[in-house]
Every structure is written in structure tokens, then in C-alpha cells.
Amino acid sequence: MKYWSRLLILLLVSLLTVGLAVGCGGGGDQQGTDDGDGPIKIGVNYELSGDTATFGSLSRDGAMLAFEEINAAGGVLGRQIEPIVRDNRGILDESMSVATKLITEEDILVHLGAATTGCVLAAAPIATQYQIPLVTTSATHPDVTVDPETNEVRDYIFRICFIDPPQAIVGADFAFNDLEVKEAAIYFDNTNDYSKGLAKEFKEHFEAHGGTIVASEGFGKDDEDFRPTLTSFSQKGAGLIYVPAYYQKVGKIVSQARELGIDVPMLGADGWDAPEVVEIAGSENLNNTFFTNHYSSSDESEKVQSFVKAYKEKYGSEPGSFSALGYDAAYLIADAIERAGAADPEAIREALEKTADFDAVTGKLTFDEKHNPIKEIAIIEMIDGKQILKTKKAPN
Amino acid sequence: MTEFLQQVLNGVSLGSIYALIALGYTMVYGVIQLINFAHGEILMIGTFSAFFALTVLDTNIAAAVLLAVAASVILGILVERIAYKPLRKSSRLASLITAIGISLLLQNSGLLVFGTEFRAFPRVIPNVHYKFFDGAVTLTGYQILIFVTTILMMLILQYIVMRTRVGKAMRAVSWDKDAAALMGINVDNIITVTFAIGSAFAAVAGVLLGLYYNTVHPLMGLMPGLKAFVAAVLGGIGLIPGAFAGGFLLGITEAMVSGYWSTELRDPFVFLILILILIIKPTGLLGKDEKEKV
Questions:
Q1: DSSP string spanning A308-345?
Q2: Which end of chain A is flanked by fewer CB atoms within 10 Å, N or C?
Q3: Does A7-162+303-364 match A164-293+378-393 in CATH topology?
Q4: Cβ of B222 and A260 within 8 Å?
């Protein structure tokens, strides 16, 4: 018995050693060898099934539309783009293996995706190891572009969505200066980092403008009844309620507030961007509510309108933020390849890093030193259940 | 003053919901001394049945409620026959663990079949708002509906248990199963009827919950079910008026703590009260130290 277990351990150890040696041998290899003609391959790694499939599929739809348009207009560097789409099923390991296969087997030049922070963080070490630039569309966590352990920027990772703090900064600015509210209450999801982070930033910046936060309360994950807290907000004289939460809570909070006769403006963030908000809250109750978002399909600029029209023609539905970000990411990659002047991952990475004033559907975009975009944030007003662009503001 | 009045109203409407769910809980416990943890999930299945009746079959609310009641009753009887009946002679711990297992099974099957997203429950009854003191205090039609339904349900339940032949048999079974069987009562059938009535109540509570909060979700029964259990224990589990009293006490306490103090302290405070009551009076607020239940 003892003999066998020793043998087994020996076997395992030797297997591991071999595995490590092989793994290290692959490290640092410059991938993306390009033969000079034929299509330019771009890997598209998204959540196309599983819990987060909506995010991934919508982003892919936007990106595919853009690649089609780019190819129809002659491609980049005189060559066509060949997007290679793979499903990571929203599973971290799967995202990692998809990234590995795209890079080692398909010889892609740029990796696009994924949509969620977890799947991007899983693919990021692979992209870094093989020195292939990775562009994510909607992963908002700060750690995506900055390694939290070393505090160093991840050279090959870029994102085109804003991260969370700027949303709260713009929200506070809008509440104080545009809505002219001096006293606000904050109602956040106490079990969610996104919500807590936004609440903290909003408080800081609203007070910096000279406003007062009269109350700040956190609700729990399973709370359904918000009436007692809303009643106390109204009693404390809140002229606005900031609700940085996700749609199902937002819908209930808005409808219960209106039911109690609280008709002050309510403000939120991109977690509000779902049709269910209207179904749960009721379109009438949502009047006089606002939220910060990546873009609005009601933006009248020509860039947005031509995108909305093309998207509707191809897919038959109104494009939301995920589709717009996917579309922008595809164009940004094409633009970076053109600026790099060569189908070489390192040159593309440098071009991406130098991106400035890139004209995107989700706003003019410049990368800061942490590979996060500096761009305007859309503020959307809900009017009779429709999202209408109120204004655009840059965080400062 | 108006704020206090509004908070009392907030608490009463929250309390009616707890009381409504607690009624079904407490009745089943009263008869077979089993905490039916799957009660919240039977409620969820009822709500989903009403939801599909309203959205897919396009029925009116009365038909939807009937369908919800039918679905919940069938499910309740099935759960009783398949999961609880074989264990009736084993220790109470075995049935308790089975109840938790059934609850988890139904929750996760719900997630699998209905999906994880929150769906909007159609507002088939218009929600009228009544304003008092220049709009400082609001009372809604749904709140009145829930309050009236809760009282009505309690009276019906009290009538069934105290005044009908079935009720008499239920009380007999609750006292002593073997003696009841010797008196010619079909214990199995009575227990099945108990589950059927409890599940029907859960279905009605579920439809009202769906209307009041505008949503249906596979886990919607979890938290209200737990709170209703607390309410039942507070009032004295197994006692119908106890469920009523416990529900209102819980609802009003929650409203007051989150309105005047802090939302985060609400649950700790509620459970502190529960512990205190159980230390001082282990049988609950209305409980007596004798064996009679129901």
C-alpha cells in the first residue's frame, strides 16, 4: 500500500515537472507570426452561452457589424479582417483556454473580449505571456488593466468602457450643477462592491461641490420593501435620491418612492440600463429619473445615428451599450492596426497605447496611462419609459 | 407625526404579508409538528403559475388565482406524499432535514426551469393611491387588499379548524395520531388536507406578493418564507392568531428600525427580539404551556 502511494506521488511530481517545463518553454514566445498577405486574424472571445450570455452576444453582434463595414470599405492595410469567434460560456477556465487556442492555433494578432471582468482576468495572463494585445469592451473592474499585487499597468490589456468612479463623479456633478440639488440621499446595495464603490465616490464628490448628503443607507440582497427608508429620506429633506444599484432593485425602489408621493429626481448608474426597469417600475413612475451610461441610442450625432441604423438593419433591434462598445472596440482595433502600419502585435500595442481623440460611438476616447479611456459619459433621462439623452459630461 | 403614521402604515402592510405567509406555515406545524421549509417554494410555484396564466394564457386575475391555487395544492400534496409521509414514523430531525432538502430542490429546479432573471408581474389590478394630510401619508389599494385578505384568511382558517368536521379531525390528529386513528379518523387523508389548505394559502399569498412587489423570481419565496417563520415563532408556532400577531409585530418593528435608525441594523434587531422572546417565553407571545395546538 505504502509502496503504491509513493509511486503515485512520484508519478504526479514528475508529471508536474514536465508540465512546468513545457509551460515555461512556451513563455515569452512572440506569437502572431504573419505571412504578409491573406486576412488579418482577430480573436473574438465572448460569453455566448451561460448566465452572462446576453452581455457577450450583444458585444459580439456590435463587433461583427463593425468588421463587416471595415471589410466592405477595403479592410486594413489593404487586407481583409477575419474575426474568429469562440464561446467561453462565461466560465473562467474556458476563457483562458479559448484565449490560448486563439493565440497558439489561430495566430491572431489582437484578442477582443471578453465582456465580464472574471473572464477578462482569466484571459489576461495568456495575452501577456504571448504578447498579444487584448481589448475588452465592458470589464469595469480596476484590476483588469492594473495588476493589484504589483500596482503595475498590464502592458497588453486595454479597455474601452469607463471604470466605475467616473460615473459617480459625473453623477454628482450633474445632480449639483444641472439639477441644482443641494441635499441628496444615497440608497445603495450593501452586498455589492459596484454599488458601494459608486455610493462612496458620489458622496465624496457631491460634498466637494458644496452639497450635503442627508442620509446614506444600504439595503440587503433580499430586501423587497424599501418604504420605511424612503419615508425617512423624504422626511430628512432629500432633494434627490442616488440609487447606484441593478435594475430589479431600482425598479422597486422607484415605484415604491413614487407611491409614497416622493417625486424628487432619482439618479443612478449603468446598472439601470435594462428594459426590465420600465416593466417593474412602470413608465410613469420613472419620469424625473436619470442615469449615467456609456452611450444613448437617442444621441443625435451622425456617428451614433448611422450606427443605430446599420445595427437595426442587420439585427432588427435597437443597439444597447454592449453592442455599441463591441462596435467601437472593433473599429479601434482596425484603427490601431492602420496606425501601426504593420500586422505586428507589438506595433499594434504601441499604437493602442497612443490612442487619442478616437472618434467612437460611445464618445471621443483617449487612453490614460492605466489603459482606461478618458471619455464623456452620457446622462440619460427616462421619459415615459424611453431612454432620452439628456446631456454628456466629462469627469473632472 | 405624519412620518410616524406613514411608518406605521409601512409596517402594517409589510406585517400583513408576513402574517399571510405565516398562517400556512403555522397550520401545518400545528397539525403534524413539521416546519415545512418548502412553504416559500410552494408559494413561488403558485406565483409563477399565476404569472404564466396572466402572460401566456392571457386569463383574468380570478382564473389566474384559481390556477395558482390548483398548482400549489397539487405540489403541496405531492411533496407531502413523496417526501414527508415515508418519514412520519422517523425522528423529527429527519423530516426537518427533508423539508430543507425539498426547499432547496424546488428553488434550484425553479432557477433551472424559469431562469435566473427577475420578471415583471403584470399589474392586472390598478393600484389606487389614497393620500392623507396633504399627501404626506399614502395608502395604496394593494396595501388595503393585502390587509383585508390576511384578516379574511385568518378568519377562514380559524373557522375551518374550530368549526368544521375536518377541523375537528385536524385537532384530533394534532393531539394524538394513534388515538385519532382509533376513533376512525383517516390520519393520512387529514394530513393531506392540511397540506392542501396550507398550499392554497401560500398560492394566494404568492399572487399578492407578486402584485405588491411587481416581480416573480425562483428565489422569491426564500426570504419572505424565513421571515414568516420568524413571525410564526414570535407569535407562538402552531397558533393561528399567533401567526397574525407575530407578523404584525415583525413588520412594524422592521419599519420602525429602518425608518428611524438604520436599514443595516434592521435584521440584527429583529433577530435579537426573537431571541429575547424565546428566552423569556419559549412558546411565543400567545403560546400557552400546554400541549394543545392549532
A1: HHHHHHHHSS---HHHHHHHHHHHHHHHHHHHHTSS-H
A2: N
A3: yes
A4: no
